[in-house]
Amino acid sequence: MSNEIVKYNNIMNEVSFRKFNPVEFDLFFSLCSKMKLKGSEPITLTFDEVKKLTNYSSRDKVRFIHDLENMYSKMLNLNFRYEDESEIVRFVLFPIYRINKEKSTVTIGVNQEFSYVLNEITTNFTRFELEGFTELRSGYAKTMFRLLKQYKSTGFYIVKIEEFRRILDIPESYRVADIDKRVLQQIEKELSPLYKKFEIVKKKKKAVVVVG
């Protein structure tokens, strides 16, 4: 796997990747790594190139196409939102997506009006190595990995529990004990080895993640 860099405007971290599984996370951000700083022109990658980026292990072409198609179906439901003093805008970031089964290629393009998410990223951006991201097995760990990269300069990330549930797409049925066991413990297990100090501190109405 090449040491690709993923870099995007922090607005991406405000989006809940609802129902994305770990493979779909890897596919999505591998495409983002190739689209950064490319304007709004569509890019085309071979299946082999995408598999190499994501360390995709299966050789089953039908399964790979199924994963690519499922990932884009979920991409269409990503709730990208922009607001300023005069308007609120909701948009699809990737309106062009084509899977060529005969040529074994995938083509994807960025919404021209909002291409700044992957192009104008000199400030307020998140940056991480794709390889480290794809090595994580849990979708919860992958999301927290990205958020901690955004707050790398401060060394900690603080979030209200309601927002924590939304951004990590935690099932409404999960009680506190479920979150501890199925979410926080998994995040700590996968991310602790990456930091000299890693601690999750829970407070009333807030979940605090501290990284040293």
Structure, explained:
With 212 residues, this protein is of the alpha+beta class. The protein is 38% helix and 23% strand. The protein has helices at 22-35, 47-54, 61-75, 116-119, 130-134, 139-150, 161-167, 176-191, and strands spanning 5-9, 43-46, 80-83, 88-91, 96-100, 105-109, 125-129, 156-160, 198-203, 206-211. The strands form four sheets. It has a three-stranded antiparallel β-sheet. Strands 8-10-9 form a three-stranded antiparallel β-sheet. It has a two-stranded antiparallel sheet with strand order 1-7. Helix 1 crosses helix 2 (47-54), helix 1 (22-35) crosses helix 3 and helix 6 (139-150) crosses helix 8. The radius of gyration is 17 Å and the shape is globular. The two termini are 28 Å apart. The mean pLDDT is 92.
Describe the structure using short key phrases.
10 strands, alpha+beta
> Could you give the order of the helices and strands?
EHEHHEEEEHEHHEHHEE
β-strand percent reads 15-25%
Task: Kindly state the number of beta strands.
Answer: 10
How would you classify the helix and strand content by structural class? alpha+beta
Largest sheet geometry = 3 strands, antiparallel
Cα distance, first to last residue? 28 Å
- What low-confidence regions span 5 or more consecutive residues with pLDDT below 50? none
Integer average pLDDT: 92
Q: Tell the overall outline.
A: globular
Radius of gyration based on Cα positions: 17 Å
Major β-sheet strand ordering: 2-6-5
Number of contiguous helices: 8
Overall helicity: 25-40%
Task: Give a brief description.
It contains 8 helices and 10 strands. With 212 residues, it is an alpha+beta fold. Strand 5 and strand 6 (105-109) form a beta hairpin.
